[in-house]
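Q: How do we represent a protein-ligand complex in a form that can be generated token by token?
A: Start from the inputs.
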Amino acid sequence: MAPSSLLDRQRHRESSARSYARRLPVELVHGAGTTVRDRHGNTYLDCLAGAGALALGHHHPVVDEAIRRVLDDGTPLSTLDLPTPVRDRFIDALFDVLPEHLRQGRILFCGPTGADAVEAAVKFARTATARSGVLAFGGAYHGMTQATLALTGRRSAKEPLGPLLADVHHLPFPTTYRSPFGSDGGSSATRLVEWALTDDHSGIPAPAAVIVEPVQGEGGVNPMPTSFGAALRRTTRSTGAMLIADEVQTGLGRTGALWASTHAGLEPDVMVLSKAIGGGLPLAVIVHRDHHDSWKPGAHAGTFRGSAPALAAGAATIREVVRAGLAEHAAEVGDRMLKGLESVSGDDPRVGDIRGRGLMLGVELVAPGRHDSTGVPVPDGQLAATVQREMLSRGVIVEVGGTDDAVVRFLPPLIITADEADQVVDAFGAALRATIR
Ligand SMILES: Cc1ncc(COP(=O)(O)O)c(C=O)c1O
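Then emit the structure tokens for the protein with pyridoxal-5'-phosphate bound:
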């Protein structure tokens, strides 16, 4: 690569914490809809979509128009939590689409990232319950700040750091393919969480909150079974813990319903939202039931609590996702992609599992012949990285995640067409075939 390349310049000046740029060495200069173009003129189908932030893809006309309007009409760009018409319109748009039980609830704007919102939700639950513990799940991803890392599953990210948020316990997520309980993952995980919350001898003091992703994203695309969601709802209610649904990645149509909590039967007390609800610009909120609001004035603050362009882009995105029926579209195209991925994988023994919901899909790649203690083939992160590179060379950007980063993840904009979905599937099939040694 020429020494003046953007990647070279980045390598010399940005922190070694860079991540995506290592696995996806592209220099992007243009985005339109579902595609991005690099500075050499190569076009890619973008199945990363800003890690799910770009529900409507790049430069959707309604989003661009909404941003342009606030730039042109003199709306103040940043007003802390002072009310403005653009903020009011965003709240209207969001409350119109929230799960029924939260429509009479309250919204808190916090710092603009998903991690900011998770922090706020935990603080909120601790305040409302006057308890401190938080129950989270293996494979969870809630962010990279000190408190959210404590809640996150990936050990390697937190082991070097020493004490993080105290009083956090993890239990197994009800995964079906790779679980400490073997093939009985779902029901055993359900019994365990019920026991942990209700048995006086479980060793875990009654927590302030249980936080959960209705479909784990970074943890390798693990949908939560409804029976688990119902058990969580029942036991948190009976034990006075708040149920927090982290819908930062699943939110707004991604999983084939506007909110993945609905599939999972969660009916959460608190929902944590970011990514798509800002229309691609930084914005994060929590919404919660009205009667839990026990914060004192100023108990949670911050400078960037809703910038005008993000509020406008977010409101436009929410309205467009509903108008265009993009949740239903995600369900249909996602189903087509899932079947396509199954078909191109054939009986390749390196494909361990294909799973997901809507347009949040993953393929777990494994090393056939080598098994973990439950008899499931071990994950093969090296193979996933090679498939990711092969797909990039075929014009498709995908992400990896899960144990050993062995899950190839598909997270395209919700506007992806059936034809484009087929192209993604074909590129995956070709990449898989290209990696047969
Ligand atoms: C479920 C979930 N929660 C929280 C976060 C953290 O969001 P952010 O990266 O904006 O801090 C993410 C990011 O991917 C996420 O997927």
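The chain has a mean pLDDT of 96. Residues 131 and 208 are 5 Å apart (CA to CA).
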